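Hi R.,

As promised on Friday, here is the backbone we talked about, encoded as structure tokens. Could you run it through your design pipeline when you get a chance and send me back a sequence?
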């Protein structure tokens, strides 16, 4: 399916691939110290340079992700002449191998942004599948708190990736999937974060033979530093490559369509549905046969005269980020720093109002009327801004801001930039339930847990319609040129972490790595996205905030709890002229890495 909507935003470059894992987790002792720092790729020695002609590369190339193997693979694809879309698919596929509990190009869902430098267009990828035909509110209410295939919606990610690959890619499928296939077959070291997730879900893994074969190969759970293999996943990737290659004589687009059909109208869909039938899931073959991803129009706000912020539209929760920023743009932060209690209070309160809007209004726009224009209007932002009190914190329940104005009716991150100026921002996720579909190696999503069972809510579980999806990477353009490509993982933490990432860079003047190094907060003053949708009216914080800031927040009525991990943050920030870029890689992940190839003559 080709692009259906486009926005012209001028010439420029940006590729951010944001890979959304549900929650970041780990410590910094699994990789050399420089693995978590932003690195420039080492230049060839002088002898090598003398043997090669000088080449002028128009823009810097950059990749940042939560795993060094994925980042390195993405850079390799860029150096082979691949586009941002090619490299993004490579990064996503490698992440599918090395962090399959967070995301999967095969079993998950994706929302992503792409900037096409040649046309000056920015588009949004809706790679999210619908609820299965056999689902009912009554049955899910009885089983919603349990893990299993009944938690899965149609995995829309692969179809979305194929749309991008067809529209924006230059390389062949065997080239972009080669790193993932090789790593899956040869194995990769279990990181501290993977080992921690394995321990947490050991009881689930032990009861699932196909999953245990991967993560308990000798009857014992894999430990940090040991080698894990994804051989069945490698077979599945290779089967997709074989379909592509055997149809390539018909044309590249036709070969890609054959791959889409093989997945959604062939053996892979059949394997997933057979597993679903056997284990009490809701998926039917017709759900796969009728599914197609879309490339749609993004949503945006003008933050100030220079900056325009782009997000993914509903059914993504990306609107939450924009609503909060639209409120915050009316406050003066010039005399404040990131550790000022007033600055944190303003961000927390704006986010509470934005999450209230998510709760009351955001769902699948094919099922409910989402008032995007009204929620992103300056008029609405002005009115919401007046609801923030500088002396008292709001608590849930928070009233719907549109309720008394009937005239206004209407969630693994990785980033990539190529030498041509193209950019992608991607968040893709499955939800960390370690459920493998037979011998396919596919780890399936558990997105059903993010649906509501309340008939009055816009995110109601409805067969054939989509869940309110947490994935929502963002892009910022400065005077029409790419400036920031960013994202934060972790369900409800995504919009909150992104607001803080943006504010750290734009309002507080921090560099890319400084911005993600900063401690973050996470409010719980709204119903959680995950079943059973509880709220806590707390402000959770990383350690590292100054005591004066924390005491100031408490004096305003915030219930502050310190400690924990609130998502994983990654960002690319472009220098003026875009010959260079900064990357910010999450310092709390043990495998995160950003790499930059500067532009210019090299």
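Update: got your reply. Pasting your designed sequence below so it's all in one thread:
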């Amino acid at each position: 399916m080709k692009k259906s909507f486009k926005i012209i935003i001028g010439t420029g470059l940006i590729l951010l691939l944001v890979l959304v894992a549900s929650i970041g987790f780990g410590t910094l002792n699994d990789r050399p110290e420089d693995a978590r720092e932003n690195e420039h790729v080492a230049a060839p020695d002088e002898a090598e340079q003398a043997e090669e002609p000088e080449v002028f590369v128009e823009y810097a190339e950059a990749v940042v992700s939560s795993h060094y193997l994925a980042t390195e693979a993405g850079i390799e694809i860029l150096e082979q002449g691949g586009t941002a879309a090619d490299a993004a698919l490579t990064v996503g596929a490698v992440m599918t191998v090395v962090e399959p509990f967070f995301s999967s190009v095969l079993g998950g869902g994706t929302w992503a942004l792409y900037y096409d430098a040649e046309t000056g267009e920015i588009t949004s990828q809706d790679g999210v599948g619908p609820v299965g035909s056999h689902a009912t509110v009554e049955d899910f209410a009885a089983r919603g708190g349990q893990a299993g295939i009944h938690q899965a919606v149609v995995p829309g990610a692969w179809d979305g990736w194929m749309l991008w690959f067809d529209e924006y890619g230059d390389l062949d499928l065997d080239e972009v999937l080669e790193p993932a296939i090789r790593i899956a077959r040869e194995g990769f070291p279990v990181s501290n974060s993977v080992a921690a997730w394995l321990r947490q879900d050991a009881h689930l893994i032990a009861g699932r033979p196909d999953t245990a074969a991967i993560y308990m190969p000798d009857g014992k759970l894999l430990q940090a530093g040991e080698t894990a293999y994804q051989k069945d996943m490698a077979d599945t990737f290779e089967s997709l490559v074989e379909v592509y290659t055997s149809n390539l004589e018909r044309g590249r687009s036709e070969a890609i369509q054959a791959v889409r059909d093989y997945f959604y109208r062939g053996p892979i869909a059949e394997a997933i549905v057979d597993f679903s039938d056997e284990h009490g899931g809701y998926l039917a073959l017709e759900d796969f046969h009728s599914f197609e991803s879309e490339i749609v129009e993004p949503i945006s706000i003008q933050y100030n005269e220079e900056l325009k912020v782009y997000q993914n539209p509903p059914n993504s929760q990306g609107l939450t980020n924009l609503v909060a920023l639209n409120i915050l743009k009316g406050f003066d932060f010039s005399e404040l720093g990131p550790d000022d209690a007033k600055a944190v209070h303003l961000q927390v309160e704006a986010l509470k109002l934005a999450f209230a809007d998510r709760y009351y209004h955001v769902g699948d726009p094919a099922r409910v009327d989402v008032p995007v224009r009204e929620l992103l209007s300056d008029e609405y932002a002005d009115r919401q801004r007046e609801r923030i009190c500088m002396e008292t914190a709001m608590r849930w329940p928070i009233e719907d801001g549109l309720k008394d104005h009937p005239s206004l009716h209407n969630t693994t991150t990785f980033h990539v930039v190529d030498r041509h100026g193209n950019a992608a921002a991607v968040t893709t996720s499955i939800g960390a339930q370690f459920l493998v579909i037979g011998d396919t190696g596919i780890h399936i999503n558990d997105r059903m847990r993010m649906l509501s069972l309340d008939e009055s809510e816009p995110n109601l579980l409805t067969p054939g319609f989509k869940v309110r999806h947490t994935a929502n990477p963002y892009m910022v353009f400065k005077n029409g040129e790419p400036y920031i490509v960013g994202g934060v993982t972790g369900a409800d933490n995504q919009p909150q972490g992104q607001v803080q990432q943006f504010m750290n860079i734009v309002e507080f003047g921090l560099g890319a790595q400084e911005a993600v190094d900063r401690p973050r907060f996470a409010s719980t003053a709204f119903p959680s996205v995950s079943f059973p949708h509880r709220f806590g009216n707390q402000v959770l914080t990383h350690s590292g905030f100054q005591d004066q800031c924390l005491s100031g927040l408490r004096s305003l009525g915030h219930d502050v709890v310190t400690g924990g991990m609130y998502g994983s943050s990654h960002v690319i920030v472009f220098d003026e002229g875009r010959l260079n870029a900064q990357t910010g890689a999450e310092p709390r992940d043990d495998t995160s890495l950003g790499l930059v190839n500067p532009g210019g003559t090299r």
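One thing I noticed while checking it: The mean pLDDT is 88.

Thanks again,
M.
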